[in-house]
Every structure is written in structure tokens, then in C-alpha cells.
Design goal:
Layout: H1 2-19, E1 26-29, E2 40-45, E3 51-62, H2 69-77, E4 83-87, H3 90-101, H4 106-121, H5 126-129, E5 140-141, E6 171-172, E7 175-176, E8 180-181, H6 182-191, E9 194-199, H7 209-212, E10 219-225, H8 228-238, H9 244-252, H10 260-281, E11 290-294, H11 295-300, H12 302-313, H13 319-330, H14 345-348, H15 358-367, H16 369-375, H17 383-387
Parallel strand pairs: 3-9, 3-10, 4-9, 10-11
Antiparallel strand pairs: 1-2, 2-3, 5-8, 6-7
Helix pairs in contact: 3-4, 10-16
The chain binds 2-acetamido-2-deoxy-beta-D-glucopyranose (4 copies).
One 2-acetamido-2-deoxy-beta-D-glucopyranose binds near residues 330, 332, 344, 346 and 347.
Length: about 400
């Protein structure tokens, strides 16, 4: 089996080598690779003709807003030259669907999310382009959401010349770049060893099953969760206008339990829990492809959790990721804005206990009870317990996977 396999590879490489000698590196996929059970194997032809096997990884970081997903996404974004990282590409899809249909058709949205993600993992921006508004012209856009949050969209090969006076505001991390040429982005993506996409918009893991079953991808999912009480407290600050009812109820000390907003909270909690239940159940299509991570654990043990996530992903943890984590989890630097990731993470993670009124915490416990239980978040039964720092609200819990 092995010998036969080797022979066929050598033959294929020889053929490729002959046809495309001048284009290096060449990276192509071996169908149904028997060498490794996980990770699509690729043969990389180096300039000097030597062969190196590498495994391309596709990781989807799934979360909801205010769960620390920008921070955790940065763990992968900092990986460097071998990583293509995209920050919330589905923002465009959600926005377009909301404008066009009010965003009420969850089935249609789930399909669009799934199809866009599938293409993006293959470095194809075509479908995403159809959701960008205004539409890109000749694959050029100034409107990609948070481009500067992706190192790979700001590196030199993707940075078209900056024209003074035209796009003055376009700061792309350490560079000033002109509008984004998505063809260049796609070319850069194809050169990268690994691809990671972060999204807070996928509602049900189950809807992504076709991605898990796509042999070109060998995709892995990391679901990031956080205490729903902390999430609500954080949203009430970050999305003040949208959460004005909650703020009013917090002041009144009274919550109309059958209000739409409360139902929405319950719906969100149920979606997160059901996704996790599917993942933890490990159906065949998800075997070795799902990992559950609590933000609280990342905040308390960032290096340990980063190491676990990278091990699960099958990617060696780069030194620059380690130093980024050290720099951004210890320093009690001045936080700059609500999206800041530079905070003393173990301190931040408990802050909500002093801003969320007990009444509101009780409501969350009532409608999100099963979610709290599944993830190991302790219920509080008094104002005193809520604000007593010596009582941990996090059960030490290990979620088995792999
Ligand atoms: C070819 O280059 C790779 C590094 O790109 C190196 O590891 C390998 O030893 C080289 N092989 C030969 C035959 O020079
Ligand atoms: C929602 O979208 C799906 C898939 O596009 C479609 O089949 C269905 O008819 C839509 N439902 C409504 C109520 O528009
Ligand atoms: C965008 O990039 C592609 C690939 O590098 C190039 O062929 C194309 O001319 C670029 N488009 C523009 C408008 O510069
Ligand atoms: C971060 O916060 C925790 C909890 O308040 C504290 O014990 C720790 O010393 C802080 N670390 C730094 C570097 O400020």
C-alpha cells in the first residue's frame, strides 16, 4: 500500500515538475490521502527540487458577540506568514440579507453563510463579493469589513499602492494601502499553509455539516463560549442603543419575562447550547473536528489554552503567538475602546459581576439555565454571592473531544 502510494506520488510529481517547472512552490492535493487520517496532505516542491509534505489546516472559530472572539482570533492572526486569517467576512452577508429581506429567513441565511465560508476556505472570494456593498469593481473594494484586522490582508503582496489624497484613511496595520484587490487576496490565500476564519454569525453548527464533509477542506471547528450573564452585561455596554430595554429593566429592577428581547436571549442561548451538544456528542461527521473552549479558561490560562487549540488544529504554535499572548494578557495597560483586546484578562473576566444587577442575572439564569449548566457556570442565588469575588462561578470542567 505504502510503496504503491509512493510510486504514484513520484510519478505525479514528475509530471507536474515537467509541466510547471518555473512555478514554485507548487502545492497540490493528493486525493484520499492514506498517510494521515486528519489534515489534507500536500506536497510542496521547493526551489531546489526537494519535496516537503505539509498539511493544510482549515479552522473555523465560531462564537457569538462579546465572547472574546476577536481576542482569541488574534491567537491565529499572529501566527504569521503561513496563516491566512479572515475576521468576520460574514458581516457582509448578514448586512445584505438584512437590507434585502429584513434578515428573517434563517434557513436562507444559514445557507449563504455556509456557502461563503466554503468558498473562502478555498480562497475564492466570488460569492463574498456578491454580498459586498457597494459591489467591488474589477475585484477592487474599499469596503471590506475590518480589513485591517487580518494581517494577511495587509501584507506587502496584498497592499496595492496607496494614492495620496484618495484613500487617506486607509491604514492597514503597519502600512498604508490602496483599495483591496481581492484577486491579490486570493493569490496570497492560496500560498498560505493554513486558513482560519472567525465568525460570530453562524447560529447552528449542524448547518455547516457540508463543510465538514468536503474532502478538500478537512475543516475543524473551535466553538468559543462565555457565561451568558457576562455576555449580556458586556452587550449592554457595547451595544447601548440596541440594549436600551435591558438597561431600563436594570434600573427598574423589573423584567417583563415574555418580552421579545428576553425571548431573543433565550433563542441565542439555545442555539449555542444545541451547537455544543452536537459537537460534544461527536457524530461521525464531526469526529476529531470539534473543540469547545470557554472564554473564562482562556482568560485565566491563556498560554495553556492556546497550546491546546493549536494542538487540536494541528498547527505548531509560533513564537510570535506566544509573545503576543504574554504581552496582551498580563499588562494592565489602558484599554482603548470596547473592542480592545489589551486588558488584564483574568481581571476582566469577572468584571460583569459588579455591573450586572442581580435581578438581570436571575433572568438570564432562568432562560439560559440549561446553557449555564452544560458549560459549567454556577448559578447565583443572592446579590451577595454574585459580588463575592472569593466565590468562583466557574466549575472546573474538561470537555472531552478528539
Ligand atoms: C532544499 O531546500 C530545503 C529548504 O528549502 C532544505 O531543507 C533541503 O535540505 C534542500 N535540499 C537540497 C538537496 O539541497
Ligand atoms: C427561506 O429561504 C429558503 C431557501 O432559500 C426558501 O426555500 C424558503 O422558501 C424561504 N422561506 C421564506 C418564508 O421566505
Ligand atoms: C488585481 O490583482 C491582479 C493579480 O495580481 C492583477 O492581475 C490585476 O491587474 C489587479 N487589478 C487592478 C485593477 O490593479
Ligand atoms: C491581573 O488581574 C489579576 C486579578 O485582579 C491580578 O491578580 C493580577 O496581578 C493582574 N496582573 C497584572 C499583570 O496586572
Amino acid at each position: 500500500m505504502r510503496i504503491k502510494y509512493t510510486i504514484s506520488i513520484v510519478f505525479f510529481v514528475a509530471l507536474q515538475f515537467h509541466l510547471t517547472f518555473s512555478i514554485t512552490p507548487i502545492s497540490f492535493q493528493i486525493p484520499q490521502t492514506p498517510l494521515q487520517s486528519s489534515g489534507s496532505s500536500h506536497i510542496l516542491l521547493k526551489h531546489n527540487g526537494s519535496l516537503t509534505t505539509l498539511s493544510r489546516r482549515h479552522i473555523l472559530l465560531l462564537a457569538t458577540t462579546r465572547t472574546g472572539s476577536s481576542f482569541v482570533g488574534e491567537f491565529f492572526n499572529q501566527q504569521g506568514d503561513n496563516m491566512f486569517y479572515l475576521f468576520e467576512p460574514l458581516w457582509h452577508v448578514e448586512r445584505m440579507l438584512t437590507l434585502e429581506t429584513g434578515g428573517t429567513n434563517a434557513t436562507a441565511a444559514a445557507r449563504a453563510y455556509r456557502d461563503v465560508l466554503q468558498q473562502l476556505f478555498l480562497c475564492d472570494f466570488t460569492l463574498l463579493e456578491s454580498f459586498i456593498d457597494p459591489p467591488p469593481v474589477d475585484h477592487i473594494t474599499t469596503g471590506l469589513f475590518r480589513r485591517e484586522s487580518s494581517s494577511s490582508l495587509c501584507e506587502e503582496s496584498v497592499c496595492s499602492p496607496f494614492i495620496k489624497g484618495v484613500f487617506e484613511r486607509y491604514h492597514c496595520r503597519t502600512r498604508r494601502c490602496g483599495p483591496l484587490n481581492l484577486t491579490m487576496a486570493s493569490e496570497s490565500c492560496l500560498q498560505k499553509e493554513h486558513r482560519v476564519i472567525k465568525s460570530v454569525r453562524v447560529r447552528q453548527l449542524e448547518t455547516l455539516r457540508p463543510l465538514a464533509e468536503d474532502p478538500r477542506l478537512d475543516v475543524k471547528f473551535i466553538q468559543l463560549v462565555r457565561d451568558p450573564r457576562a455576555v449580556l452585561a458586556s452587550r449592554m455596554v457595547a451595544f447601548a442603543a440596541k440594549y436600551k430595554n435591558w438597561k431600563q429593566w436594570a434600573m427598574d429592577g423589573d423584567v417583563p419575562i415574555d418580552d421579545d428581547e428576553v425571548r431573543k436571549l433565550k433563542g441565542n442561548c439555545d442555539n449555542i447550547r444545541m451547537s455544543a451538544e452536537v459537537g460534544l456528542r461527536q457524530p461521525p461527521w464531526l469526529r476529531r473536528r470539534y473543540m469547545l473552549v470557554r472564554y473564562e479558561d482562556i482568560a485565566r490560562f491563556p498560554m495553556r489554552k492556546a497550546t491546546e487549540m493549536y494542538r487540536f488544529a494541528g498547527i505548531p504554535l509560533a513564537p510570535q503567538v506566544k509573545s503576543w499572548i504574554l504581552k496582551n494578557t498580563q499588562a494592565s495597560k489602558e484599554a482603548s475602546g470596547v473592542y480592545s483586546t489589551q486588558k488584564n484578562s483574568s481581571e476582566q473576566v469577572e468584571k460583569w459581576r459588579f455591573s450586572l444587577p442581580f435581578k438581570i442575572a436571575q433572568v438570564v439564569q432562568k432562560v439560559c439555565g440549561p446553557t449555564l449548566k452544560l458549560f459549567g457556570y454556577k448559578f447565583v442565588n443572592s446579590e451577595e454571592m454574585l459580588t463575592d469575588r472569593s466565590i468562583s462561578l466557574i466549575d472546573e470542567k474538561v470537555f472531552s473531544f478528539v
